[in-house]
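Page 42, continued from yesterday. The earlier attempt failed because a stray header line got pasted into the input along with the sequence. Redoing it now with the clean sequence only.
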Amino acid sequence: MVARAVLDLGSNSFRVLLADEENGELIVREKLKEKVQLLRSSDNGRLDPAAIERGIESIKRFRQRLSSLDRANIQVCGTHALRQSDNAAEFVIAAEELLGVPLQIISGEEEARLIYCGVLHHLPTNNDTRLVIDIGGGSSEFAYGTGFAPSVTVSVDMGCVSYTDEFFPDQMVTEQSLERARATAVRSLQSVLAERSVSMVDLQQAEQVLGTSGTIESIVQVADANGWSSNEITPESLADIRAAICDQRWIPGIGLPGLTPNRVDIFPAGVALVSAIFDVLKLPAIRYANASMQEGMLYEQSRRRVEDVQWRTVRDLSRRFHVDQKQVARVRNTADRLWQSCRVPWFGNAEEYRRLLGWACELHEIGAQVSATHYHRHGSYIIANGALRGFARQQQAQLALLVRSHRRSFPGLAFGQFEAVHGLRLMRLSALLRLAVILERSRSDAESPSPLSARVNEHSLVLELPQGWLDQHALSQQELAEEFQQLKSAHVDLQLDDLLL
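This time it went through. C-alpha cells are written below.
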C-alpha cells in the first residue's frame, strides 16, 4: 500500500487530499481544506503580505499531516494567484522549504485539464460529450471533450475572490454592483472564447454540463435549501437567487438560507460569474460534481501519467517540427553521460532536472524549421508560447530558456527570474546541453566521443575526452575554445583534461 497526497494552493482555498493506493486502486482517506484567500487584497500584481502569511501558516498546519509520507508521493501545485503575482517567488520558496517538495505553478489550461480528469474519474465511462466548469478564487476554467482527454481547455481571469475585491469590497450587495460584475464577466468570457476560436456551438451542445468548486456547490446548496432546484443550477433557480439578493433578502454576514458561513463574503461574486456563464453559453443547467483538480492530480500521480503526458507532448512537438531524431538521440545520450558525472555534486537527488535536460535535448532544434538563423530563439518562442499539455507554467518557462541558451551567447541574466538555487541549477543544465551539442557537431554516431566523462566541483567542470579526439574534430575544438568565456556567465569554469587530449 502506498500513501499519496496532493496539495492544491488555490486563490481562495488550500486543499489537501490524502489517499492510499492498494492493488491499483485509490482509496481516499482524508480531505483537509482551509480558506486562505491568497489573492485577497492583491495590488498591482503583488500578493498582499498578510495573504502570504496566511498561506504559510496554513502550510505549516498541513505539514504535520504530510510529515509521515514519502516526499516522492506528495505533489504540490499553485494556480491563478501564484501564476499572476510578481512576488509569488517569496511564497514559493518558503512553501518548498516547509514541505520539502517542489511547488509547480500550473497554467490555466493545465488546471482545466486536471479538473476535467478529476471529474471524469467520478463518472461512468461512455462517449458523451462533457463540459466541465470550475470557478476558482482568481480564474474560471472550462474543459470540453469526450473520454479522459479534453479537446478544449480554457482559463478566464475571473474568480470569486478577485471579483469580490473589485465589485463588493465593503460586503454590501446591490443590484447595480451585481450587474456590473455580471457584465464584466460576460465581456471577459466572450473575449477569451473568441481569442481561442472556441466553438460556442460545441460547448452549448455538450451532453453533460458539470460544475465543480465551492462556488458551484454553494449556489446548488442555496437553490436546494429554498426549493428552487435539486442538485443543479438552472437559469430559473439562478434568477431566484439573484432576486433574493437584490430584494434585500440578503443579510450581510449571514447571506441566504443554505449558505455556509465561510462562503458568505464571496457568494455574490460567484452568483455574478455563474450568471455570466449562463448568459454567454445559453446552458440549460449545470449539475454539481463532487470532484476537483485534486482528484485529477492524484490519479495522474498514482499512474505516473503526468510524466508520460509530458514526454508525449515533447515528442509530438519534436515530430511536428521534423526534428532530426537521430541527432536528438546523440545529443541526449552525450548530455546524459555528462549528467551522470555531474549529478551528485551539482544536482543532488533532484531527478526532475534530468527529465528537464532530456526534454531540452529533444526540442533544442525545433526552431530550425522556422529559420536556420537564430533557431535557438525561434525554438524558445515556440515552447514559451505553445500549449504544452502536461506542463506546469514554470516548467514551460524553464524548458524555453534552456532551448534559448543552448548555443551562441549565454543569457545569464535570464536565469535570474528563478529562485537563486534553482536558477544556478538551470544554468548548469544549460552548460551540459551546450557541451553535448558541441561534441555532437559531426552528426554521426561514429564520431561521438567515447569514452566521455567529466569531473566537477562547485564552480568547475573538467571535460574528459578520448585522447586525440579534439585534434580530429576541429569545429568542436574551436567551439569549445569559445565556450570557455561563455560558460563563465553560468558560473562554470570549463577545463579540458590535458592527459586525454
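Notes: The mean pLDDT is 90.
Reminder to self: strip header lines before submitting.
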